[in-house]
Amino acid sequence: MTNVYTLAEPDCIEALPLVLDSPHSGSLFPDDFRCLASEAQLKSGWDAYVDDLWAPVLAVGGSLLSAHYSRMYIDLNRAPDDVDPAMLKRPWAGCNPSKYSERGMGLIRRYALPDVPMYDAPLNIEDIVRRIEQFYRPYHQALQTKLDALQQQFSAVWHVDCHSMKSTGNRMNIDSGAARPDVVLGDNDGLCSDPGFVQIVEDAFVSLGYKVVRNQPYKGGYLVTHYGNPAKRRFSMQIELNRALYMDEQAFVPNRKFDDFRRDLGRVAGAMADYIVDNLGGQDNV
User: Fold this and answer.
1) Which of 20, 60, 133, 241 is least surrounded by CB atoms within 10 angstroms?
2) Which listed CATH number (3.40.50.970, 3.40.630.40, 3.40.50.2000, 3.20.20.70) goes with 5-71+132-285?
3) Cβ neighbours, 10 Å, residue 174
4) In Å, how far are 19, 218, 240, 283 from 192, measured between CA atoms?
5) Where are the domains of the chain?
6) pTM for this one?
């Protein structure tokens, strides 16, 4: 554990080249942080309990990296230069805004919710750089180091980027107003992961009674596209869980289905582990 993240290792079992990460599970802010959004509005971006829900992966040989600080402070699932220049006091060559920044959801959030701005004044470039150096880079360095070590040991590594989603998209989402399925699997339309692994994950969820959709509305964000490289046997996919399955979305507390859902995710994690054990023999198998 560090002040920025926790990297949990497998529980009393031989480690597998399986790493889950939860970049939006944090809810902390630095003591000097100030913004216009309320506590409840800030919590709307929190992937509440996602790290806890996926903790059963530790029992089957996987590792779990989870962030401590809120995505509303800095979003670990964005490129480090995905900054909206309109948010800054002066021009900065470090800005390369993406589609996320256009919707107010870049590295540094412009809006907490539709029509709810985060700040009442432009930000200093120095503040952005400090957030990157103190909170963003340590998390990514930890993930990169873990993936590198496991690939060196096993010649392949599987990475799952874990998230939650509101049960209905809002106006900042590309599926505004749409009811969402139970689970969305994102592999960037097949470009970032091992298709057999994605199929096993889908089959595991479906066998447990969940409705699963691939790549709509989420194909996978920066973490998946940055770390996934199937040609080098680095497989990365994203899993989005519908919050209504396990929590009260207004009160941000677990609901009565939480424990059962956590057990189900343990079964999904077990299916991931079985697949990896069966496919470590050679590149032709994946």
Assistant:
1) 133
2) 3.40.630.40
3) 11
4) 15, 13, 16, 16
5) 5-71+132-285
6) 0.94
Which strands make up the sheet holding 157-165, listed edge to edge?
A: 5-8, 63-67, 18-22, 157-165, 234-242, 183-186, 212-214
Question: CA geometry: angle at 136 spanning 93 and 175, to 5°?
Answer: 85
Please give the average pLDDT of every successive group of 10 residues along the chain, which has 286 residues: 91 91 97 95 96 98 98 98 96 94 95 94 97 98 98 97 89 74 97 97 98 95 97 97 96 97 98 96 47
- The Cα–Cα gap between 35 and 29 comes to 11
Contacts 24+ apart (CB under 8 A), 179-182: 180/217, 180/242, 181/211, 181/212, 181/213, 181/242, 182/210, 182/211, 182/212, 182/241, 182/242, 182/245
Q: What are the DSSP calls for 11-54, one per residue?
A: SSS---SEEEEETT---B--TT---SS-HHHHHTT--TTHHHHT
Integer Cα distance of 180 and 46 in angstroms: 17
